[in-house]
Amino acid sequence: MSIDNRTSETMPRDELAQLQIEKLQTTLNRVYRNVAFYKHALDASKIVIENIRSLRDMQRLPFTTREDLRTSYPYDMFALPLRDIVRIHASSGSTGRPIVVGYSRNDVAHWSSLVARQLAWAGITEHDVVQIGFSYSLFTGGLGFHFGAEHLGASVIPASTHGNLRDQVTIMKDFKTSALICAPSTALALARTMTSMGTRPGELHLKRGVFGSEPWSESVRAELESTFGITAYDSYGMSEVMGPGVSGECEKRNGLHVSEDHFIVEVINPTTLEPLPAGEEGELVFTTITKEAFPLIRYRTGDRARLIPGDCGCGRTFVRMSRVGGRTDDMISLQGEKFFPGQVFETVLSVAGLAPLCRITLDKRDDVDVMEVGVAISSDSDYIDEMKALQKLRSTIRERIENVLGVDATVTFVEEARLQNEARGRKQPVVVDKRKT
Ligand SMILES: [Zn+2]
Questions:
Q1: Rg (CA), the chain
Q2: Ligand 1 centroid, distance to 325 Cα (angstroms)
Q3: From the CA of 248, how far away is ligand 1's center (Å)?
Q4: 188-216 pLDDT, tens per residue?
Q5: Distance between CA atoms of 251 and 154, rounded to whole angstroms?
Q6: Quick one: DSSP state of residue 255?
Q7: Distance of CA 320 from the midpoint of ligand 1 (Å)
Q8: Rounded CA separation 133/426 (Å)
Q9: 363 alpha carbon to ligand 1 midpoint, in Å?
């Protein structure tokens, strides 16, 4: 990567804070002038932009919520006219309208360089053959990583839309892919397909994987590393804030460095909305300070993490955040236990022969909370469709859920196409809570 990048990554903290405040001032002026929502919000909070002179002052600024973005559908949060927008993406919402995001030419350039920077942190260089397993769509994962990897100078294979998992494994083997970039659930499905095809890790050229877009655990990391013979890195981003490239792990893999020359990160208590000190877990809040088309002030992501105090051994001064463990708004409380839908999903993913899909239905029966987990037999699997095998599979899933989460669940088999339809392309479980109705 360029020397410029390395300079910002190791900038002394006080210089970085000064740079952030200057860029924040510019961003506040931009949104005040061009986005009615922010003009109104800043006026209502009686904020005088010139008085926001420190990161502490910043805590007086109003928050932006997902609901605010939904209400602005499609273009009301854009700070530039459409003629200056060169790209549009959208996040699929499980409920209500999607959130539409726009990028100026400069935004796309910054985005590519930030993704490239993060891939470089994971040790990827122009000598790598990078295979993208994220879909190329309104979702930012595919194109975001694609342009970042290209910017880095790697040879990029847009493999995700090419056929099924077996085809992707064949590409990986034949095209000598050295770095895989996709969702961890996709990587697990690829790993299992590879094993079922009889391909050994030694037949591949894979060295690294960068995975993100959904929470994943250290046990999934261990499984991916051993199956593929790779080093796996975590990456974090979300379409509203930019897409992939907001933060990522360096070679130390002890937290994700936030690209603080483009984003200001805070962690707040989601109930009191007070900022939390480093080390305490809460809701991640991001302010974009270089985006032109779709700037966000104190955006509440709904993702749970903490900022990690202290310096990283890699020498970069950018703050680190912990790996995202789940969302603040979707934690399930059941039978006296608290857990995230992603943990149920992970259990499903750990069982061979199942599609990376899952539906969680919560209900009350005789005043007792019950959970039903809908799963589908993978079409890629050679699993025998006979009752005895299905019964065994059902009890395996049930046992694992009980062991990991301490709750009793019933398991039902659903058609893969149906679950796919319900998931609408998202690599997350669908949660239906009938207890609330
Ligand atoms: Zn580091």
A1: 22
A2: 20
A3: 9
A4: 889 888 988 999 888 999 999 999 988 88
A5: 19
A6: S
A7: 8
A8: 14
A9: 44
Give the Å distance between the CA of 189 and the centre of ligand 1: 29
Residue closest to 261 by CA, chosen among 234, 293, 288: 288
pLDDT digits (tens, 9 = 90+) for 51-78: 999 999 999 999 999 889 989 999 999 9
Q: Ligand 1: distance of its center to the CA of 286 in Å?
A: 20
How many A from CA of 249 to the centre of ligand 1? 7
Q: Starting at the edge strand that comes first in sequence, how are the strands of the sheet with 231-238 ordered? A: 155-158, 129-132, 179-182, 208-212, 231-238, 243-249, 256-258, 320-321, 307-308
Q: Is 233 exposed, middle or buried (0-12, 13-18, 19+ CB in 10 A)?
A: buried
Ligand 1 midpoint to CA 347 (Å): 30
The residues, any chain, with a CB within 8 Å of residue 87's CB and separated by 6 or more, are 102, 103, 107, 108, 143
What's the distance, CA 288 to chain centroid?
17
CA of 311 to the centre of ligand 1 (A): 8
pLDDT digit string, tens, across residues 213-238: 888 888 889 989 999 999 999 999 99
For residues 383-399, b (16+ Cβ closer than 10 Å) or e, as one string? beeeeeebeebbebbbe
pLDDT digits (tens, 9 = 90+) for 79-133: 999 999 999 999 865 456 789 999 999 999 999 999 999 999 999 999 999 999 9
Q: How far is the CA of 270 from the centre of ligand 1 (A)?
A: 28
Tell me, in angstroms, the distance from the centre of ligand 1 to residue 319's CA. 9
What distance in Å separates the CA atoms of residue 172 and residue 181, rounded to the nearest whole number?
12
Question: What end-to-end distance do the CA atoms of the chain give, in Å?
Answer: 53
Q: CA separation (Å) from 133 to 163, 179, 189, 229, 328?
A: 11, 11, 11, 18, 27
* DSSP H or E stretch at residue 268: strand 263-268
Instruction: Please state, in angstroms and rounded to a whole number, the distance separating the CA atoms of residues 250 and 120.
Output: 8
Report how far ligand 1's centroid is from the alpha carbon of 123 (Å). Answer: 12
CA–centroid distance, 316 to ligand 1, in Å, is 6
Instruction: Identify the band that residue 425 occupies on the pLDDT scale cut at 50, 70 and 90.
Output: low
